[in-house]
C-alpha cells in the first residue's frame, strides 16, 4: 500500500490500482507504436528509433514527425479530458456529470466560434475563447441551479438545457459568419486531430503542465468530496473555495483540448467510470486512472477514425459520438433503475 500525504490530507494507492495504472500506461504507449506503424506509409517497427536520429532520411523523419505528433496529441488530449471528467463527476456526484453533457463543451465551442467570427486565430486566441466560453457556461449553469446549494442532478439537468441553447447559438454564429469561417467552424466542431502539429501539441502540453500544478491538491481532495460536502467539511476542507479550484481545473483541462481539436465527446464521460471499475475504487474517482483510461480511449478511437473505414478518414469526434451515444443510453437506463 502506497500513501501520498499533503498536510492533513492523505491518499492511499492499493496494489490493484497500481498494477492497472501500469497496464494502462503500457497500452497508451502501444497505441503510439501502432499509430506509427499501421497502414500505408507506416514505419517498420525497427525504424521508429532510427527516425529520431539525425541521419534518418527526410521521408522517414517526415512520416515519423507527422504521425508521432498526432499520436501523442491523442494520448495527451485524452488524459486531459479524462481528468476534466473526473473533476466534474466528483463535484456533481453523478456519472452523468461530464463536461460534454453539462454544457462546458458547448460553451467552449461557442467561445471559439465567436473568436473565429471576430477574426481571431492561433492557439492563444482560440484557447482564450474556449476557456472563457467554458467558464461562462459553468457560471450560468451554477446560478440557474442554485437553490440553497447546488444538487448534482439539478446541475446536470440545467446543464443539458444550457448546452442545447449554446449549441443553437453556435449554429446561429455559423450562419451569420463568412463562408470560410463557417466552414472552418464546421470542420473544427466535428472534433478532429487532423492537422495537429508539434507547435500546437507543445502549446497544449505547456497549458496542461500549468494545470498540473494543482493536481496534487485536487487528487487528494476528490475522495473527500465524493463523500459529500458535509463530510468534506468535517475533514477540515474549506468546501466552497475548494469547489472553485476544482471547477477551474476541470474547465482548464477540457477547454485547452477543445481549443485545438474541437469538442470531443464520450471520453470525459466514460473514462472516470471505467477507471473506477478497473481499479476497484470505493472512495471516489482517481485522477491518474481517469487520465490513463482517457488517453487509451482517445488514442484507440483516433486509430479507428483513420483506419476503420477503408479510404475514408473520419473525425475522431464522430467515432466517440457513436460509442458515447450507446454508453449514455446504457448509463441513463442504469441510473433510472437505481431510482
From TrEMBL:
Subcellular location per the Swiss-Prot or TrEMBL entry: Cell membrane
Membrane spanning stretches: 20-43, 71-89, 101-118, 125-146, 152-175, 187-215, 244-271, 283-308, 314-333
GO biological process: siderophore-iron import into cell
Membrane topology: Multi-pass membrane protein
Keywords attached to this entry: Cell membrane, Membrane, Transmembrane, Transmembrane helix, Transport
GO molecular function terms noted in the UniProt entry: transmembrane transporter activity
Pfam families referenced in this protein's UniProt entry, alphabetically: FecCD
Keyword match Membrane: yes
Top-level taxon of origin: Bacteria
A single GO cellular-component term on record: plasma membrane
Chloroplast as UniProt keyword: no
Gene3D superfamilies for this protein: ABC transporter involved in vitamin B12 uptake, BtuC
Family per record: Belongs to the binding-protein-dependent transport system permease family. FecCD subfamily.
Name used for this protein in its record: Iron chelate uptake ABC transporter family permease subunit
